Prior knowledge:
Strand order of the largest sheet: 3-4-9-5-8-7
CATH class of the largest domain: Mainly Alpha
CATH superfamily of the largest domain: Tetratricopeptide repeat domain
Number of domains: 3
Amino acid sequence: MKISFVTIFILISLITIKDNILAQPIQMTKDGGVYMVPCKVNGLTLSFILDTGASNVMLSLTEALFMIKNGYLKDSDFRESEKYIIANGQIAEGTKVILRNVQIGDFIIRDVEASIMHNIDAPLLFGLSALERFGRVEFDYTNSILNLRPNQNAEPQIHSSNYGQPINESSIGSESVNTNDYKKAQKYFNQAVKAYQDKKNFKRAFKLVEKALTFIPNDTAVLMNAGVFFGPAAKKWDKSIDYINQYHKKGGSNSDSYIVLFSIYRDKKGDFDKALTISQTLVRKFPNNSEFPRYELDMYIKMNRLPEAKKLLLEQAYAEPYNKEIRYFLGIISFEMEDNVEGRKWYEEAIRLDSKYFEPQLGLAEVVYLEAKDIKDQMNQLGNSKEDFQKKVALDKTYQDKLKVALPYWEKCEKLSPDEGKVLDVLYMIYSDLEMTAQVTRVEKRMKTLGLLD
């Protein structure tokens, strides 16, 4: 059969019209040099950075924690990977999760693989490979438009007013709740999440959460949200404490609630005794978390309870034989307690574990140089008598020997951190007193380049 040019034109026109009907324009927003795509993940509205170089979806730790606490992510959504969601509710780096549904515009794709990045400040990324599951993708960067031409993988939007919301009967407690009260609480909580997540209106979000609690005061999920997220965001410290305590009394035990409580007492209320008690509770309730003993250590140091701090660090040092930071801190505390021999030992252990670890190397250099400085101070206290002159000559020889011992330590520091002002300053004095003219000139030139000398 002969096909005329008119027929071909009509066929092409029909295909074009069909594509235009199916294509859905999605308005992106440009933020700096990146484009943001609005979407919903398991019912939660989010904005992702469009990343054509990424293969899948990436969630930040902040958003992942929010989704877990508010029911947008469930235990069944997590998949095995190199690291897991651990028992205390924290998310390990590289955790894989399956997003039940991701909606862009009026279309949904299901069972989308995503990665949770163990970084509070990590961006939300939407990779091109994941985006192409919707169908054909076209970009109009001039007008910031993303055109989706859905394929068979993309389903039309299914509206459900209760989808993915956190309030459920299991969290309400033993008291019966009127169905109407439950619905009212759900409405206010949904509004609170929207005000918190979309509008960043934290004070209004907190008021709405409190409104929800008037209908279901025993709901542990809402109590935790009020104390851990909404209250602190609205800077309602006392109310946050009250809601977290209520959450604990009703059986709530999520580690985040204790961390926030600790932070409020330490940083906002300045109640170190209370913060210490909470840090000890964290260690007792979550013995497998290696980070929580450091909260307790922080309080001992802040309260100048150094023997207890040292005892705690020693326990950690023996439990973690390859932890250089613990050994460095043991060195600091030992010197603070005037145990110089042990302090030096811990600095040397930290350097043995990492020869490029600058801080203990600097600490060691300062300790060795201090011996030379003490000799110099003795010389400066002597007078001009013949006897004092003879003492100065003898002390000067000792001083020169001490400087020669200290010099390699400071030269090692310079290699590790060539622009460190304190290191250059001490080297300048040592080289000058040892009459090493060429080195004095070199260091002086470097200090002038860095603006440390006029």
